[in-house]
Structures are given as C-alpha cells and as structure tokens.
C-alpha cells in the first residue's frame, strides 16, 4: 500500500472519524448554548427586515422578534419567572405582563422609565434624544456600553424585561431576557432596546419591541473629535458639536429627564398649537328624538318613521365609545373632545371629564338655520360656532377610528396649514340633479362654488378619515358663501341644495387660500354590510396596517343587520380592548380622577 493510500486509511479510521464528529457536535452544542447560532440567524433576519423596511412598522399584535434567543438557558429562566412573577403569561413567543389599563403611549413611557431607572442606579450618564419615532431613545457614551448591559442585567434579573442588541442598522441581532444579558457583553452593537411585552386579556393587543426604549451608544467623530456621532438619525441630524451639548431638562409624563438644549428647544416642524376633536352623534333609538323628527316630517308632508325603522337606520353599535378609545389609545395629544348632539348624551360617557363637552345643536345654530335638524350637512356647517373650539381641529364621524399611534403632524403642518386626504373616487362630471344621492349632489354644489371662485373644477372626493379643519377657514367661508351656507343650515332634512362643508368644501377652499394642502394617510375602509369585505376586518385586526379606518354600513348590503351587529361586537373590543378615560368607571377613568394618569407630552 502506497503512502497516499495509507494516509487516506488513517484519516478515515473509525476512531479518528468518531473524534471529529464529537468535536463538531460539541462546537454545535456550544454555539447553541452561547446563543451564537441565534445571533447568526437573527443577523439574516435583520438583513431581510432592513431590505423590507420592517423595523418600526411591526403590527401591535405581532409575535416576538425573530431575534429572540431560545437557547442558552432561556427556557429555564422563563419557567422560573413564570412561577415567581405574578400575572405573567407566555404569548407570541415571549413573557408578557397583563395589559389592564395602559395605552401604547403609556407603555412607551414605562419602557423609558425602565431604561432610565437602570442607568441612574448604575450611575451611567445619559440624555433623552428626540427623533421622529413614537418610542424614546436615550444616548449614552460608547465607553459605557458594558456598564449599560451590566446595569440592565442587574436591575432586571428577576423581571420579564427584554433587551435587544442592535446592529449598526438598528435591527435586533439578539433579544434576550435581561437576566441573560451578561452572556452578550462581547456581542458588537450600536445600542440596545429595552422593553417589557404586555398583552391584553383578549390576547388581541400585544405591545412589545416597537414601543421599547432604545439606548444608543454615541461616540466622538474619528475625523473630528469636536463632534459626537449618533448611530441613529435624530431630529437635529446624526452629528452634533460638543459645544451644543448643554444639559437641559425634558419633562415627559410627569417625570423630568435629562436632555440637551438641541432637543428641548422648539424645532421647525413641531406642532405646538392645540388640536381638538369634534364628533356628531345621534341615538336613533331615542323615542323623544324620534318624536321631534316625526313632527318635522309631518310638517313637511312626509311619511313619519316608527321606532323600528329609525333604530335600523340609525343603529348604534357603540362605535362612538370605541372611536373615543382609539383617541385615548393612539392620539392622546388631542386637547378637548366636543360631542355635538340633539339633546342626547351616551349613558357611558363621563360628562364631568375636563376634556369632554357635550354640545347641543341649539348652541351652535343660534338664530341660524332651522331646528330641530336631521341633516348632517346642516350640522357640519355650524361646527365652527362651538364655544372654546381650537383654531385647529379634527372632525370625526363616529364610524372613523384611529388605528395606530399617530402624532399631530399627520394632520397639520407646524405653520398651521391643515392637510386633506384626497380619495381616488371621482365626483361625476355632471350638474347636480334630483337623481343624485345627497352626498353626490353636495359635492357637485361644492364644485360649482369652487369653480366660480377660483376658476378650477374639482374632480375628487375625500377619504373616510378624520378631517383636519381650521375654524377661521370655516368662518370665512360662511361669510363668503353666505347664501349657500345659510340654505344648507336651513335644510332640516338632507337636500340636493346642500353643501358638504366640513368634509369637502373646506379642503378645496383652504387649498386655494393656502391654508390646506394635500397630505398622505393610510386609511382603511370596510363596509360591514358587504360579505366580501369580511376578510378586510381580519386583516385590520391581525396586521393593524392603517393609520385610520372607517367601518361603514350601507343599507343595501348582503349581510343581515343582526350579523353586522355580531361582527362589530366581536371586532371593536378586540381592536380596542382598553376602556378609555372617557368611560365612566373604567380604570383609566378612575386613575384620571385620582391624578395618576399623565397628560401630554408623553
């Protein structure tokens, strides 16, 4: 046997092969236990997220991040925490605390406090950074990186607090319970994200990493040490001169955090003026309201309505309750909420709440128009007469909901300009006629006024979204289109002579007078009366893809009324499981009364 053949035999001898397999196997086990394999897998997932733009846009009910480490004792630690920490549950691949009363904005604040408490206890200096995200970021000098990880590990070793190690693209490469964090002291990263996952009792709302607090490691610019570099984009860029880093306090949710003057000064783009919300609402099952309406119908020589017909036309599925929940959960920067009604008050509404006021039609109509009115166009034409209403406000129908955390810049520019959201639905290019549906004839009447005033022909309507309005524009229109506005206000029932003032005419008039400009919003629309729209509800609930959405119910659909009731009875509390501070007796309501519910800014 030649030397080559002899060498081959020796290489593949059973003892040699066995030893090699044992070595490979021991390396694989070590990699699993150390978490390195999870990190490598997470790196691949992070690259996919970077390309697909997933970071920061994860649905509120999403599962745990792909970077969550399962090995290295994670399961044993989870089991111990489940036994020792009251109320913890396993959901979506992570340990979650119960979400009883907190909104997403409250969770954001709680996670900021988690990070700040650990840093302050360890004596690690930090400051709060401003950026465009809902979640908070704090900056720490890169030399404290190991101290930060040890501080978090020590502070939360016995709590279900998660920490994600972030790469230079701000994607998580490893997500572990804080008690395991010291195993990752050598893992490179530009920062960490700290959070507790929380889930509602219904398991339909889970708030996790998207609302965590990022601890970002800043360092001197190697090309010019007079500047500091941030690994993330801030509101003032990624490169700050050291001389600008003067300490300045930043109050958030009743606590004052350290920051620096570039982040505590009013910045271009900040919406610092108050924004209110206005709803119009009717309870069609109210017999007193129906008696008043039938008096009007009889006086006009029209057929009156019985209670069953009225209840069907104005069926109340508690949409208003859940629309207010959507504001409390996702738009807490709204200052006051005005509910415009005809001598009606929802039984569940806390009318003593300082941010809520019920406004009767008689207050806003004064001597204008004709009351009682059952014409939504007429009511909308008088909203600017609400006493105390802010110059900038959002007009909501009660079937419109805020779908995720939004900031006021979605609706207004910092210079005061309102935004409007154009629909692809065209207004038919024909004069108004009695054959039109009332909303179409109103749009055509708007078109005639805009063309006569500005020489341009409007072609489209607007999305079923909150309408950003300026009170001064409405006041000016009332004077400029005095006759047409007065006619609309005087129509007690919908008429082909109506204008649609708040939902259309304001936007076109404001555009031509430089006070309203096109905006962009993700707006979902579901007609619960159509069976082929049911799948949209499932997607909205599971993916939460929209900034706002509308749940409309056309009366000529193919879904029976009782089934529509059942659908919304299941959907609405699943999407909005936290009772708002505006609901009498809710936990948020009681906390507000006791002074334990912080206000804006959050």
TrEMBL record:
Residues of the Stealth protein CR2 conserved region domain: 313-419
Stealth protein CR3 conserved region domain boundaries: 464-510
GO biological process, one term: polysaccharide biosynthetic process
Keyword S-adenosyl-L-methionine in annotation: no
Keyword Transferase in annotation: yes
Pfam families: Stealth_CR1, Stealth_CR2, Stealth_CR3, Stealth_CR4
UniProt keywords, alphabetically: Exopolysaccharide synthesis, Transferase
GO MF annotations in UniProt: transferase activity, transferring phosphorus-containing groups
All copies of domain Stealth protein CR1 conserved region, residue ranges: 273-300
Family: Belongs to the stealth family.
Record-given protein name: Exopolysaccharide phosphotransferase
